């Protein structure tokens, strides 16, 4: 009997093979996966996941977990020799505890479904990112997803109170804690969050909920320099207690997307544009305070111009420029790089990086945007004459500069397969050796997501 | 040559033995340590710590790290066979980066020294607890210290961006990251934070700083029931964006400490008293808003009475009751238990726990207080006829009820030696086995803080 026969015997028709396997299991959103896996298992319980892993571990069979397949680092690509565990059927919210302010949720639940359930109960689930409609909670946790509300509510890691995961050998580690403070031995949830499926399979989680804001105020500001931008960020952090987004766009990025969306906000495209958003408590004076705050920043010359959204529609028009969906369709072979740098260095880094890329690729589009308050910069790159080697050359140029600035080659996308060769640009040999030691301890047969991360 | 001779030869006169060793190295603040260690090493660099660990590891010599010795779980007690590494001379702030909002600090730096340095630079270091004058940053991190500002700024883990630690074999793991988002492989800092010195020695850290509040408003509120208290907490969280403390006192606790301090706040001692504190931005209207908020809660019958501190002195008088220093001197053999429960269950838990303790110890003082917003309850227990077995009997009674409520036997004090026998009340066999697996991977010879935590 082959391992696939074993799995079918133990788990029945939740094990798909051959033509039963859908095309989508080939690759995550990086579109770099080429092959379909040898089998896809679609469990509906943690016990089924444990059984599958136990059998695979005993047979040395490699396993790749797939969620919403929205990752950009190739972390969920399986290849033809792996068995895939797809969490798409292990969905649902098991409990919302309004007094503890927690939600217990299964890993396959789409993020947006969980967000809506929280809202229906009067709470905010602060984990939020562009792919909310298709990404799944398990994948959000496995990659420690970042997103647009980190400034106020922290990264995904900070919003997970309890976790259940299955080890490579099929052991279920159930730590579905609902308490904020819990210092009873090692914090096991931390081992699995952000490990991209290489140390265990996340099956359920207790997420922290926050009060639902009564609304939001949104402004689009024009600035003259990166130094002004940092000064403005500092002031926003000190004076706007409900500050929930601070999204910066460099001139090129803003111009491209405003023109693509046929939107005109300022007389001239400014060197920097920033979306500032504040969560509201529902007090009538908050709008006046926001206007006064921006007026003062204008008077002091920290910002050059400011528009406050007068409607939900206008707020969405600001965000449409920031989200830049037009780039996907209009720029060929678009690459979105994701790096972190100390906040004070981002301006110089972007200038240096832009010059280096333009020197090597004179015809390329290069633009910058990002969650500057979280030290996170994205780079949009598109080369009309791109070939198979281009992405790797771009990575090499950018990550070499990241290394010199002591930055991180992955702020929020993870390492997956695509960034693995560059991990030593952000991590020392001692750190890498310790990661390998941890991997060997938790997955001694090396069956979980092989070749990913380390 | 003995290992102590080896250490002296390699490290010189930073190695103390015999009468050179101070009495304080016998025990942490639980006063349960009985013996002096065989040597005390007082390094002033990470390199010296690495050398000491390498030699000890090669010789199977056990090592206990000591910081400010303010722990309450026996975690830093050494015993006569261990070598102590005392971090008291490895102090100092290496850098404050105002743009990144970070402080890089050595592990032996007292918390209060770091707090003051942050303030001098216009920032708040939000890690804060009663022992701030003597506890050290390294110990705060090694125990994932909680404290009174968790509600607004998170536990210590959430305020650490970068970490340097030395492994048992002397390898220095330097991850002094200054970025909020960094998803480059496993998050190694998480392995050391909260591991109580059993997985490595924390030597330096990058801490996250926040804007320094312009001031604080403090109120003392009287409430009739635990349900009201939870409703009031929910309302505070939704309506006070700068909420930075919510400290609950049960009737017995409030009565004892108010009388001990000769302070009278309300006509009668209420069933529950709560200190609410709000960080200010410096806007003149904030005080009015705070008063209006409390007035509305009074009108709605959620609170029965409220006093707003009119001066720093009055605010300190509220806090003096909460801090309860009078108990230390007036109650014999005082025990301070530290547990976590889901917020909605704390009222019933306290009632049940109080009844069980009073039944077994009819003459004992039993009272409750805590950081309810963080799901954290403290229990003050004092038995006049206490003997050596009493603390263990009390632990047994309380932790058995904690187990039934699916709570945590340690919210913020850690496990150390004193809670180790009860760890299975909050952790499953699978979780404990995984902790042992991690311990074996990181410290295969078992030299680091032996017998602690697991």
UniProtKB/TrEMBL annotation, chains A, B:
InterPro entries with a match to the protein in the record: FAD-bd_oxidored_4_C, FAD-bd_PCMH, FAD-bd_PCMH-like_sf, FAD-bd_PCMH_sub1, FAD-bd_PCMH_sub2, FAD-linked_Oxase-like_C, FAD-oxidored/transferase_4, Oxid_FAD_bind_N
Key words, A-Z: FAD, Flavoprotein, Oxidoreductase, Plasmid
SUPFAM superfamilies per the UniProt record, alphabetical: FAD-binding/transporter-associated domain-like (SSF56176), FAD-linked oxidases, C-terminal domain (SSF55103)
Names of the cofactor(s): FAD
Recorded coiled-coil stretches: none
Keyword S-adenosyl-L-methionine: no
Gene3D superfamilies hit by this protein: 3.30.465.10, 3.30.70.2190, 3.30.70.2740, Uridine Diphospho-n-acetylenolpyruvylglucosamine Reductase, domain 2 (3.30.43.10), Vanillyl-alcohol Oxidase, Chain A, domain 4 (1.10.45.10)
Residue ranges occupied by any FAD-binding PCMH-type domain in the UniProt entry: 33-212
Family: Belongs to the FAD-binding oxidoreductase/transferase type 4 family.
UniProt-recorded name of the protein: FAD-binding oxidoreductase
Organism: Ensifer adhaerens
């Amino acid at each position: 009997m082959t391992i696939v026969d074993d799995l079918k015997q133990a788990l029945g028709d939740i094990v798909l093979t051959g033509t039963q396997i859908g095309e989508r299991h080939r690759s995550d959103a990086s579109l770099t996966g080429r092959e379909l896996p040898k089998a896809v298992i679609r469990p509906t319980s943690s016990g089924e996941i444990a059984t599958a892993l136990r059998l695979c571990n005993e047979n040395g069979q490699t396993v790749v977990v797939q969620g919403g397949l929205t990752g950009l680092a190739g972390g969920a690509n399986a290849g033809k020799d792996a068995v895939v565990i797809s969490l798409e059927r292990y969905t649902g919210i098991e409990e919302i505890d309004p007094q503890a302010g927690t939600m217990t949720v299964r890993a396959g639940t789409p993020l947006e479904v969980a967000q809506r359930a929280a809202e229906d109960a009067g709470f905010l689930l602060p984990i939020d990112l562009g792919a909310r409609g298709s990404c799944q909670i398990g994948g959000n946790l496995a990659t420690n997803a970042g997103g647009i509300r980190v400034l106020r509510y922290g990264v995904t890691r900070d919003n997970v109170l309890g976790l259940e995961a299955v080890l490579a050998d099929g052991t279920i580690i159930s730590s579905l804690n609902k308490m904020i403070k819990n210092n009873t031995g090692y914090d096991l949830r931390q081992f699995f969050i952000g490990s991209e499926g290489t140390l265990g399979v996340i099956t359920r989680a207790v997420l922290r909920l926050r009060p639902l804001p009564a609304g939001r105020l949104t402004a689009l500001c024009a600035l003259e320099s990166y130094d002004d931008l940092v000064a403005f960020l500092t002031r926003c952090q000190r004076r706007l207690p409900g500050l929930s987004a601070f999204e910066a766009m460099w001139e090129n990025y803003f111009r491209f997307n405003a023109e693509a969306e046929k939107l005109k906000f300022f007389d001239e495209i400014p060197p920097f544009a920033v979306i500032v958003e504040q969560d509201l408590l529902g007090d009538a004076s908050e709008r006046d305070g926001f206007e006064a705050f921006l007026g003062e920043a204008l008077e002091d010359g920290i910002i050059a111009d400011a528009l406050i959204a007068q409607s939900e529609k206008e707020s969405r028009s600001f965000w449409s420029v920031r989200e830049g969906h037009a780039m996907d369709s209009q720029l060929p072979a678009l690459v979105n790089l994701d790096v972190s740098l100390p906040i004070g260095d981002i301006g110089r880094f972007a200038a240096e990086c832009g010059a280096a890329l333009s020197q090597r690729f004179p015809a390329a589009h290069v633009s910058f945007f990002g969650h500057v308050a979280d030290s996170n910069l994205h780079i949009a790159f598109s080369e009309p004459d791109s070939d198979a080697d281009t992405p790797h050359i771009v990575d090499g140029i950018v990550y070499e500069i990241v290394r010199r600035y002591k930055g991180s080659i992955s702020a929020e996308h993870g390492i997956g397969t695509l960034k693995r060769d560059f991990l030593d640009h952000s991590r020392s040999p001692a750190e890498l050796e310790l990661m390998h030691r941890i991997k060997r301890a938790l997955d001694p047969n090396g069956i979980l997501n092989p070749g990913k991360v380390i």
